[in-house]
Amino acid sequence: MTVQVLTFFNNKGGVGKTSLVFHLAWMFAELGKRVVVVDLDPQANLTSAFLPEDDLESLWEGGARTGGNATIYQCLRPLTEVGDIGDAQTQRITAGLHLVPGDLALAGFEDFLSQEWPGALGSGSLFRPFRVLTAFWQVAQKAALQHSADLIMFDVGPNLGAINRCALIASDFVIVPLAADLFSLQGLRNLGPTLKRWRSDWDKRRSNWPDPAFPLPLGLMQPLGYVLMQHMERLSRPVRAYQKWADRIPGTYHTELGGAEGVAENPPDDPNCLARLRHFRSLVPMAQEVRKPIFRLTPADGAIGGHSAAVGDARGDFQRLANRILERIAAARPAT
Known about the structure:
The protein is of the alpha/beta class.
């Protein structure tokens, strides 16, 4: 039995996607779920949120010298020669949360993924093209098995390239983080057709290898909804510029990605809107300094007075969002 993969994806950058993954990974673990997080963004921002620079240097440079499997790229590197996928040496964040670290060298793997994509439709040996194309999924599943994980989370970069295509064909569920602006709306218009095309293209490739030599992901990419990030209020009411774009998101999301039935006039009433998250601006640098989610900040970290109340608000927001995501995953149609 495989572990379900949840990917957070938006081809528009700067919406707070990596921060969302970081905080939800911690919250899922606090709720008793065993989680493996895989950083598939070549910029490795999620990894740097979890680990200090000295650890990163050791993982990237030390692993590269010794041939270890300390990062996602180091697990895949043998595929670029004549070897096979390595088992990830995950980083323990908590007892229920483990990280497969990212790696700036992962950008160099994009060419291999692009080259093998058409090969999966060939008539010759299909072992190598499918091994390369499903490498992210294979590494993640082995790591999940190692830690008896309930859920795998992928963080990916803001683009529609070959790395993200292979991350998405490995995904059972997709959540779209959005900002209330024109660029997020345009990103949605690109994202919907792209996911449909990738799903269809992967189905064709799987049918071309009816008796695979190893398990393959189904590439369901089922949309669970969107999260509206950096919600801003003035006197408990959304600012006008925010509201203008926020009101256009429900219809655009429904048109491009489908999801729950019905279209609302604004995100609070939209069944596809999983949450509207506030920015918690004053807490962000404090949390980054101690590499904690903002809802775990303590007075010793500087969260006193009004900051302490904001920490409690953040905990409530992320707990509600995490529970809602888990409910939707549980209610989704089973994989076949």
